[in-house]
Amino acid sequence: MAEINPVAWLQERTALNRLSEPVLTAIAQVLQEQILPANQAIAEPEKFPTGFYILREGELQTSLKNAPPSSDELSPGCTINLRALLLDQPPEQTISTVTESKFWFVPADRVRELVRQYPEITQTLTRQLAQELAEVSSALTYEQQRQDALRPYFVTKAKRGIVGRSRYAQRLRQQIREAGSDRRSVYIFGEPGLEKDNIAALIHYGSPHRQQPIVKINCGILQKGGAELFGRAGGKPGLIEWLGEGTLILNNIDELPEELVEAVATLCKTATYRPVTREGDDPAAPKSTPAKILAISEKHLPAIAPHLDQTLKVPPLRVRKADISAQVEYYISLYCRAKALSKPQLTPEALRRLQSYDFPGNIRELQNLVERAIVQSDCARELTEEIFWAAQGKKKRFRLNLLNAYPQLRHFLRSPWWPDRINYGFTVVAFALVVAILFLGPQTRDRNFALNFFWAWWWPLILFAFPFVGRLWCAVCPFMIYGEITQKISEKLLKHNLKPWPRQQAEKWGGWFLFGLFTLIFLWEELWDLQNTAYLSAWLLLLITAGAMICSAIFERRFWCRYLCPIGGMNGLFAKLSMTELRAQQGTCSAECSTYQCYKGGPQKGEGMETNGCPLYSHPAQLEDNRDCVLCMTCLKACPHRSVEFNLRPPGIDLWTTHQPRSYEVALLLLLLGGIFLHRLPEINTVLGLGIDLSQFWPHLGLSLAALGIPAAWVLLAGVAIVGLNRTFKSKPFVQLAYGYLPLVLGGSLAHYLRLGLGEAGRILPVTFATFGLSGEGLPVWIAHPAVITFLQGTTLIAGVGLSILLTQKIGRESLRSLLPQHLATLGLALGMWVIIVR
Predict the structure, then answer these.
(1) Residue 715's Cα: distance from chain center in Å?
(2) Residue 839: CB partners within 8 Å, gap ≥ 6?
(3) Residues 6 or more apart whose Cβ sits within 8 Å of residue 566
(4) Residue 147 vs residues 11, 213, 229: alpha-carbon distances, Å
(5) How confident is residue 593, by pLDDT bands cut at 50, 70 and 90?
(6) C-alpha span between 828 and 715 (Å, rounded)
(7) Where are the beta strands (DSSP E) in 585-652?
(8) Beta partners for 401?
(9) Predicted confidence (pLDDT) at residue 102 exceeds the cutoff of 80
(10) What's 561's DSSP letter?
(11) DSSP helix/strand/coil, 466
């Protein structure tokens, strides 16, 4: 092997070739050969160099602080530490060997001697530094202009990875890795709310070019000429040119102006573009770009998709139900960390509710739903299903907001009069007076105005009101007024902390408890003649009041009303038929509300008043059933955004749209159906010729139980017949179809009480005088003719039959033949009611 000529090698292979030959000869004379092992540092920022090195053979790497190692520009011939020695300062970076390497080495003291002997070395270095400084200044100016141009469009980071372990999530992660492995263009499309722009960012930041910039531009704001994207010929560059080897996200490419479709398609297909020229000028020469193109849209676009190299379809959330649990946990953790909150647990019931929803807004809707639930829960340890309310599933049709149509109604319902002044200024006193008169006054209905009011006024009026105002009575119910008084005493005077609701147990058993309680009330009413025994009617009122007071002393808000009250259970069932509803504008609640004071209470905010929150723990935006609203209007008073609505609607529309059937409600419905026949035991005894002595307790009890049970058995038999008839059809389950009997049950109950309402309620004045031992002769009496009562009873039953058949058809959505057994059962029940009530 020929011996190396150091001078010639320095001239040909190193940056020292700018020095004259005498200087190079002097340097060559002091060169020392060194061989260093791998991983040996030869330059370190905090250490002054011992000399300078010239690499002859081997591999080196450099590394700056917080930057990955690089081997760029460290080929044989590179000089190391010379600038640091000449400037008398430590090196700017660490340089070390990767493999065993050969060097020429000049000690630091010999370098100083050469510099003193040959000033040319310093002069050459000064010129080199000046040239490098000019180049750096020019590069900085360009980079500044580039940053200014790109800054409005920068995507600084990916928000999150793909959460979940389903096969869809795994495949999506694999597609993202493949899309980022090369420079080919990618078409990303999928439904709204899937965070497709985040997927584009994941592709970029997972690629080898992650250090390059990534920008996103909304195609809907591009000019028709596309100058901001392609630049102008001979003028200002466009985003493509400034971007270099970065990544361009064309967001909402379906909104691209038609004039740019062809140019963008060419860019995606060939990675070339033409700068924009003035009208009449020749087209500019095409330019190529190394940028990676990512196009995003919400649907597949045949005009663009074929021109992109890869297609990535993002699966909607409704097909990734297995990922919902992981995503909810992720969003809970994310939000709680950001707000420094303790992390709540998601109940299984809440998870099931989320998994049963299709999420038209996809991931974005789920995240908003979780964040709303955490705020609404007010730092509770569990997130229960009641606080998860999703976007409205059905279109809000055929609704008239009465609060907008009648501003005076809104003003009244937001005033202190409703319901507080009515409750605490009148009802609380009136109820105590009624109970006292029931105990102390005469014991028959014709001589006790309180007994007359309860059976001849209250029952017909409340039954008549259900189709119009739902559970309105519950807002002024005296049972819960005394419950609230007990609650205030328990909290303020006794310093007792009220317990949260045992929701799971109450949802499971509460409905059956009130069903059993109502059964006992029916039997007590019939066997002991409560309708004509004042003190027993008083005990009935006191027992229900005691239940409300005991529950209020233990649990917060109206636990008794929500789950256990028998009257409330009946009211909630019949309220489903109401032509009015209280709801909220979900868009307003989602976009503007962050406090949820209508649900959990809070101080005054804007026009929203200070309240303690919904007494039934219902949010108006999540309401789908009138049974969960007592129309107390707390939410209307608390809402600062005017989101709450009191709507006029088609009667009972929930029953065939959003209604969720419950077995205990159907049991209560069948009990109320039997109650109509129970109230007419003497007529049944006479019509059937049974000859049972109703003055005897056990025969009376047996007939009462038969009256309650046989109508329910008749309904169940019709349900079995429907299943047998529809083996080849897709019929609704019995527990859902059974709600079709609801109008008949309401109509039959009202027909029964019309006799009392129209025959005895008008005697209230003479009965009132008789209550206090006075003569009521000559006082006006308003009663209907028996023929009028019979006509109205018959009309009510006919209306109940027709509406039941119509409602059954709406719920079942089957042919008339398929549901014929239930229609025949309805007619049979109505015929029985006609015989014992009307005839």
Answers:
(1) 39
(2) none
(3) 514, 517, 518, 521, 544
(4) 40, 9, 15
(5) confident
(6) 10
(7) 644-648
(8) 647
(9) yes
(10) I
(11) helix
Structure tokens at 157: 């980071």
How many C-alpha atoms does 791 have within 13 Å on its Cβ side? 5
Q: Residue 529 in 3-state DSSP?
A: coil
Is-cis flag, bond preceding 502, omega within 30? no
* 533 Rama class: left (phi>0) / alpha (psi -120 to 50) / beta: beta
125-131 long-range Cβ contacts below 8 angstroms, 24+ apart: 125/82, 125/83, 125/86, 128/15, 128/18, 129/83
Nearest of 517, 463, 519 to residue 704 by alpha carbon: 519
Q: Is the pTM of this model over 0.85?
A: no
The answer to whether the Cα torsion of 169, 171, 174, 180 is positive or negative is: negative
Q: Look at residues 825, 743, 835, 838 and name the one whose alpha carbon lies nearest to residue 793.
A: 838
With H, G, I as helix, E, B as strand and everything else as coil, classify residue 775. coil
Amino acid in the structure at residue 568: G
DSSP conformation letters of 288-337: E---EEEEEESS--TTTGGGSSEEEEPPPGGG-GGGHHHHHHHHHHHHHH
Residue with the two structure tokens 């389903």: 166
What does the block give as tokens for 702? 């047996």
In the predicted structure, residue 154 carries a pLDDT above the cut 70: yes
What stretch of H or E contains 106? strand 101-107
DSSP state of 194: S
Is 403 strand, coil or helix?
helix
Residue 315 near residue 352, CB atoms below 8 Å: no
- Supply the mean pLDDT for the chain: 88
Q: Using alpha carbons only, give the angle 656, 657, 660 rounded to the nearest 5 degrees.
A: 85
Structure tokens at 287: 């330019």
d(CA 807, CA 737): 9
* Site of tokens 């519950």: 474
| Residue that the structure tokens 């009663």 belong to | 783
Residue with token string 């000028």: 281
Q: What is the pLDDT of residues 57-67, one digit of tens each?
A: 888 888 755 44
In whole angstroms, what is the distance from residue 60 CA to residue 76 CA?
Answer: 9
